[in-house]
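Field reference: sequence -> structure
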Amino acid sequence: MPPSELYLIGTNHYDFKGPKRLDHFLYVIKPKSVVVERGVSLLDISPPEFANAYYDVLHKLESIPESFRLPIEEELTTQMVNLLKELRNYLGLTGSLNEVSLRDYAKSNGFEQTRSIIYSRINAIDLRIVDLPLEEFLRIHNEYVKENGLKYNGSVVDNFSDVANITKDCILSLSPSKVKDFVETLYTSDKIFDALDQKQIEILMERDNTYVSEIKSCNGKTVFISGLAHIFGPYHNVYEKCRNLGLNSIRYKLNEADKIDEKTHVLV
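Structure field:
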């Protein structure tokens, strides 16, 4: 039985307001099922024991009084900041970082997954974090990077993980206000998709097929959470695929979450 209602929410992975925005969106929609783009986050390349501890602490934050949260949240943030710095050293990334942006990123890293996990635990709903198998995901992205090449500090970068971390390094060199401006521009401008070439679109479409397969098997009111391109990209994206299957959906960008009416789910 397909979803009774379907809401697609497009995010930016560097949205420092993302956790609060997504919490609000889920609270307003109150889904029975949530499907989330897995992708590759910092937690995927962290030791499993750290990732598990990270999720556990996040969950505990929801169950303790507000006045006791800050010390625990700060401790967790410090752990994430230290891990980011260790990864930078390991990868030989030498750009200067903005310490405030780094802490803001540490608090919001992988928020699409972490906030969905917390929501699902508290409300006992169906949660599916899906994507291509990690090995396949990295294989097709590594092939693309090797074919197109990228130089950093004069050296050719030939794998996806390094490209992702270099991108992160460049963004986190900005001040929080500049990161905010950058993220809001990505939400409001369709020009961000102009750089997509045919191979990148083919990769997106392959991943989209995985998402849609999960979405159509969900029951009740369903939310799908992913990066903007999967929902708003200029190709036969998840939104278009769902429409072809007769799954009538409403799509939003996460920066619109505060404007959604709690009763009608219409932007106001």
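Note: The mean pLDDT is 83.
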